[in-house]
Amino acid sequence: MQEPIVLLPGMMCDARLFAHQVTDLSKDHAVMVAPVSQGERISEIASALLPILPPKFALAGLSMGGIVAMDILRKAPERVTRIALMDTNPLAESPTSAAAYEPWIVGARAGRLDEVLSDFMRPEYLAPSVARAEILNQVRDMGMALGPEVFVRQARALQRRRDQQSVLRKCKCPALVLCGEHDALTPVKRHSFMAELIPYAKLEVIADAGHLPVLENPDAVTAALRTWMRQPFVLK
Prior knowledge:
By secondary structure, the chain is α/β, with parallel strands linked by helices. The chain has a single domain (5-230), classed as Alpha/Beta hydrolase fold, catalytic domain (Rossmann fold, 3-Layer(aba) Sandwich), CATH 3.40.50. The chain is built from 12 helices and 6 strands. It has helices spanning 19-25, 42-49, 64-75, 95-99, 101-109, 113-120, 132-146, 148-159, 165-169, 188-197, 213-216, 218-230, and strands spanning 5-8, 31-33, 57-62, 80-86, 175-180, 201-206. Helix 10 (188-197) links the parallel strand 5 (175-180) and strand 6 (201-206). The radius of gyration is 16 Å and the shape is globular.
């Protein structure tokens, strides 16, 4: 059997984010969805996950999950057999973007998490679609289930995140860089840049999708992940 697949969800999302991928890929792969909520720094979250992950694994992360995936690759490259980075960002927060989290943190602590989540994941971040409202409701439900304390921890972790460009340049395993064509939060141009940093990387742009292609066009994402899993290992 091929190596197990570890999926890391985005901020304020849980395993429901990957429902389609888990259902399909688990037909012939061991699949695990791991939380990215334990720690106030990306490094802490990655360190908390490593002891519970398989000895070797294929690693795929979306948005914040992709940021944690890059830090896992930094800490334990010998354990990551292949990596998929979806709708994410390898750069550190700028002072301006880091400061933008503060009103959301205040709102979450003041009992206004529902309002914060609506402002955090806006409709324009997704592709124009009749399903957009339903997807936003799914994201809201996941966020409300996780609660305000998780929001604050994850926001702090993102504010303090490190630049991962050097990690990507050193990557020597099969790599997929995937993005929805309408992603207005982490646009295609950013993913082209990431793919250029990583040796052997393949860039996949998903049609009819924005920042959450796993929900917006799940069939296309799952197909891309299956192709990624069939890529031969790169000599290290």
